[in-house]
User: What shape does this take?
Amino acid sequence: MNSSFDIINASAGSGKTFALTKRILIKILKSKDENYFKRILALTFTNRAAAEMKSRVLNNLKDFSEIQIKDSPTEMFEQVKKELAFSSEQIIILAKERLNLLLHNYSFFQIETLDSFNHHIVRSFYKELNLDPDFRVVIDSEEILDQSVSRIFENIENDVEISDLVKDFSIKKISEGKSWDVEFDLKEFAQSVLKENEISDVEQIEKSSLKEFKLLKDKIEVKLNSLNSELKALLINIEKNISNQDLEIAFSRNSFPKFIKSVQNNSFKWSSIKSISTLFEKNTLINKSCLKKNPDKLNIFVANLFELFLELKERLIKIKVLNSFLYSLTPSILLKIIKSNSEDIQKENNELLLSKFNKLIYKEIANQPTPYLYEKLGVKFNDYLIDEFQDTSNLQWKNLIPLISHALESFQENENQGSLFLVGDPKQSVYRWRGADPKIFVSLLLNKKTPFSVQKNITNLPVNFRSRNEIIKFNNSLFKHASGLLNLNYHKKIFLQGSNQKQNNFSNGHVSITFINKDFKKEQQLESVLKETLSQIEKCLSRGFEQSEIAVLVRDNKQSSQVSEWLIENNVSVLSQDSLSINNSKKIELLINLIKLKVDKNNQEARAILIGKFATLVQPKDLFVFYKENLKNEFKRFLKNLNIFSLYMAFEMSFLESVDFFIKELNMDLSNTDPYILFLREVIFEQVSQNKNNEKEFLIFWKKNNTKIKIPSSSSKNAVQVLTIHKAKGLEFPVVIYPFVDSVTHRNSGKRNWLPVFEENLSKKILIPFNENFREYSDSFQKEYDNISSNEELDNLNLLYVALTRAVDELHLISEYPKTKTINSHNQIIRAFLEGSGEWKDDLDKFNWGKPVHKEKLKKNERTPCFKGYETRFFQPTPDTKFLNEKIVFGNVFHEFMSNIEFETDYIKEIVAAVQFAKKYELELVIVGGSDSWMTTDILKENKVAIVLNKTHRLPNRSHEDVDLPYKLPKILQDAGILYCITVGAGWDGFWDQRNISFEAGTAVAYGLTKEEALMSITSNAAKILGIDQTVGTLEKGKDATLIVSKGDALDMRTHHIEQAFIRGRSVDLDNKQKKLYRKFMTKYEKEIKQH
Assistant: This one.
């Protein structure tokens, strides 16, 4: 039986989604309330996971509702039937009823992401939060932060103190041999404004005055002066100590005197401190031959010198740390202004950063009475289910506790007790950098104390249903051994207890590890890893696996690009949505620089790149002279010298024509299939047609966005998937190949932490670069470093666990040769395991477990052609019509056509394909969605195609598109003479937006529509498209009296107030539960106010 508070500890492949789906099905079928599904809230962390869970629930209900389930019951049906203790007939009847209700009230079926739920909460409390009701959610914060930093420099002349701070900071940077430009540093610091786990640190900066910072700066400088004096005295003392010896002293490789000299010159490296410490520890500071002559005196000398060295080391560390604090003071002071600028920009643009939701809810909403929260939300949840709970942040959990607590502990006599169902795996927590706090889940698993008064029930899912047995055995052994490498006991427990997965009936399986030759140089290592990756793919294909069954997992997008491009070059189809950065292509680099020359024919950077490209073809006698002359040459002479004068006329053409001319003349894409060229042309086309950008404006856009623009690829292709480990989380693949098994545990560069300047109480914390060398500065530094180090160990081992547990049939690891066995990288962890299991041999570079899996060979004609990463989507149906009648032909063609359209993307090609198809078969076409209809207005008008626009209150499809495009789209279609109407989406937002449809139209008024046109877009136009304009859509004699009466402007949220509504002449009662509750609480609070 289910308890009210269940925690499911679910290792990889153990069926957590099955457990969640089963729980929801039981809740839906068990309740006597047929609408009980409205009281269930299931939260996930990705849209994909939410969609999968919804799909599973619906599919299972559909299966349950069919009579044949009695004779051929599924595993889910058997388990649900057993727990409910219902007969098969009861479940069939209930499933049919509940499925029908659920489909008719789909927007109430609340399986969604935590971000979506938070979005709804914030929307519901927009008044209390002083937000505009039409605020736009911004996911990508980079642009707002960039603007926030830029405003500092825009207003710098108006603030002398800030101006002086920036100048001093620039001078300090120059004195340290760094760039004077402070903008980069400020943008790095500005990231803290967005990080949930740094909220309290940023707030203490906000509360501080400039005067306090100046006092702190003075205090640090006084301390530094004192330390520098002590350092000089110590250096003198050390030199005297050495020179006053009456013995002959020969230092090993003269290391110590060299080190002292480097300290005096302020040119020492931190690694040298470690080297000298090692010489002292091993007693090798003095040459052995020298030490033998007078061991007693020299040992005393070395011991005294060691004491002085430790004092010297202490001063050096303190000076280094205090200088870091001093360096970081200015960015810290300006952080306060950056945050203020960010708030102003969001307010001006009517925007709200998604990253602010948790903080807003926690500070302004979470402490409200729970009944009031439910009243504002419009629904009361009784059952809470949270997937991937290990990735929950501290604020997310705190915000949910009041709602969950009310369901568990404050239910009424006539209500069922609510429930909480948490599912997670601490071994798969890989999002700490995004605010996730796996300690919350670990604490609930290991500690008795919980935030609720009800008893918790912990269940471990013991069986791995995903992988073949050899893979399960390998992973159990590896991670059980790796647990011993971790420092913290509770971290060890996570892997010790979680590495005992039971095997299933899925026998055999294959695991291989390949280490690349340890004598290879770095470039050779990279090429060898890529070659071995290709070799493993080819072997798998020869054993009958399809390309789509193979996944290559990598650590980051750089590795992803390297693998993807290598495979594409070797004619392997690739599916890699995040890695094919358009900016990586040499052809694109050449095109962009040609565009730069079109804007400015004397652009030195662009000329230099073109000279480098074409000089090898020209083969000048003196390359240096060739560069020097052509950087200054008149433009025509420049082109002639590079043998590309044929391009000259392109520089006088329009933007789009010139790009096509460059591509054609330089033979960049003769077959019209190069993914980079094709996609760049689409990007340029969008910029020109949408934003009316010329070459100069496009280059501004390119500079800002080139690293973000990725080549999309269709998921329907039979292609090898290349993705990061983070993206692979929650997925499974028949074959997993993990090259570059060298993910480092501790990264010194780029690490910043908020640390106290001094050990005294209430010392201000400043954000500074933080590494191992700072560890000995103070007790708090050591504690912080040890904590970070332990967390990094766990996170990196978790990452390895996620990578290795995605495989079903085969798992292949490819790595540089590990020289040691430690927790410091994935390949070193694997070496430690191999040594511990007695399988390691220095001369072996390949290790195998199990045998390769052989699947049925693919027939020759089943091999799919190579997919180059991106291709245009025009569809040409070619059915075999020899023996088929016309209706069957139509059905087959229609099915084939529909299977090739990706509705969620609304790409221009799919719209064109739909129009062509409708024209061929004489169909009346209506396009639903139409996000890209602005690019095809001519063809839509010509073919009289109507558009049902899916919301105006949304973000554009692509990150590089105009953020206001959805608001402008109705006006674009209106001006083009296309029949269109505005509707709302499905799901949670769709339900709430039904009542807001007039505001969707109202927004379009702000972007160019007249009020009459906007009103038509939700009334008469919609009726025409649906073919019911003879009865509804306008107020005319003889038509249905279906209308509303508004006191104010029905399109304006600020004045809109519905007083009456009629459907077919019948008055609709506008009173509802929410209004009654409002009046009830309003009366109550008014009385309390009067009493006080």
In short: The first strand starts at residue 5 and ends at 10. Residues 295-348 form the longest helix (54 residues). The two ends are 50 Å apart (CA to CA).
